[in-house]
Amino acid sequence: MSQIKPLSAEFEKIVVGGRQSFFWSHAAGRLLKPYHYHPEYEIIYFPEGSGRRLVGTSIANFRVGDLVLIGPNVPHVWMSAPDCTRCETIVVQFLPDFLGSGFFDRPEMLAVRELLQLSLRGVVFSAAVRRDVIARLENFDALNETDRLLSLLSVLVRMSRDAAAHPLASGLPRTRLSRGHEQRIDKVFQHLNKHLTEPISQGQLARSIGMSPATFSRLFKRTAGKCFMAVVNEMRIGEACRRLAEGDQTIAEIAFGCGYETLSHFNRQFRRFTKTTPRQYRRRATGAADAGDHLQPGTRRHGTQMTAYVSRKSNSI
Questions:
Q1: Which of 29, 57, 26 shows the shortest CA–CA distance to 315?
Q2: How many Å separate Cα 117 from the centre of its chain?
Q3: What are phi and psi of 23, to 5 degrees?
Q4: Would you call 280 helix, strand, or coil by DSSP?
Q5: Would 314 disulfide with which of 193, 221, 239, 260, CB 3.0-4.6 Å?
Q6: What are the structural domains of the chain?
Q7: Is 94 helix (H, G, I), strand (E, B) or coil?
Q8: Rounded-to-5 percentages of helix, strand, coil across the chain
């Protein structure tokens, strides 16, 4: 591949080159772009990196191999994990009419049109389709403009034939935010990503962005589709899942390290969001026996907080 360019911090305005009908980039570095939306469809693939992604009302972890299709004006952000210092991305962005008005209304494009409609909720794909699509995306910088356009069409057709493709979000995006509210919500998510394992006060966070707690609560729910503490718990359980799958900490260490005061509360929240127990999740994720946990439900942590995120500036795309 050709040399990878550093990631750009400017993302809202997408500029397409004179000899291209769509934008694409292969970049590496820190994730810097804020919570945002744009009128283009977006395909994004991560050859390297890990963290959390927010797409519409969906909040989930991402890792190497993550491939997502996002529809126009769907608010989204990728936030690197505090222990992730480098992310690599391949991004393709195109307007609905980039091939001319009505192109996707042609009968041959029926499956692609249905996929693009589904992308308003964000779409993820099966492993087999990911492998095929990723191979084509990684070959983009070896192609000329014409072949790259044909390859993009083949990517969309391949994605549209994935019977296992499914949406990320349970519903359509909320009403578009004003620029000021968008910036406030971005600050909230960046704060959560950086301080997720620490005690979090909704009232203090609201005041820090110049809003009353009641106004903040209404804005956040309208944006995320769920209340503030539900999102905090969802993000904490997502971090717990990552640690269960990738590390050898005990379940108690993970519970306390993800911001929970008691193991019983952690277990209830974990089952609520994953429909399984932490021990069962680890066994399925690793195929190994649990590392063991010697604290009983109701045990509280004492003294300083146990394993926590490294304090580091949060970055996003």
A1: 29
A2: 19
A3: -100, 140
A4: helix
A5: 193
A6: 5-167 (2.60.120.280), 179-286 (1.10.10.60)
A7: strand
A8: 40, 15, 40
CA–CA gap between residue 234 and residue 226 (Å, rounded): 10
Contact 273, 266 (CB under 8 A): no
Element (H, E) at 234: helix 228-246
Distance CA 211, CA 37 (A): 23
Picking from 164, 165, 176, 213, the residue whose alpha carbon sits closest to that of residue 73 is 176
Q: What is the DSSP string of 9-68?
A: S--SS----TT-SSEEEEEEE--B--SB--SSEEEEEEEE--EEEEETTEEEEE-TT-EE
Do residues 29 and 86 lie in contact, with contact meaning Cβ atoms separated by under 8 Å? yes
Instruction: Name the one residue in this structure whose structure tokens are 């050859």.
Output: 47
29-38 pLDDT, tens digit per residue, is 878 777 788 8
Q: Are strands 76-80 and 51-55 parallel, antiparallel or unpaired?
A: antiparallel
Q: Which two tokens mark 186? A: 């971005």
d(CA 225, CA 173): 8
Cβ proximity of 202 and 208 under 8 Å: no
Mean residue pLDDT of the chain comes to 80
For the whole prediction, is pTM greater than 0.70?
Answer: no
Q: Nearest-5° angle of CA 201, CA 207, CA 208?
A: 90
Distance CA 142, CA 234 (A): 40
**Alpha-helix runs per DSSP H in 90-201:** 110-118, 127-138, 145-160, 179-195
What is the token pair recorded at 150?
A: 């044909």
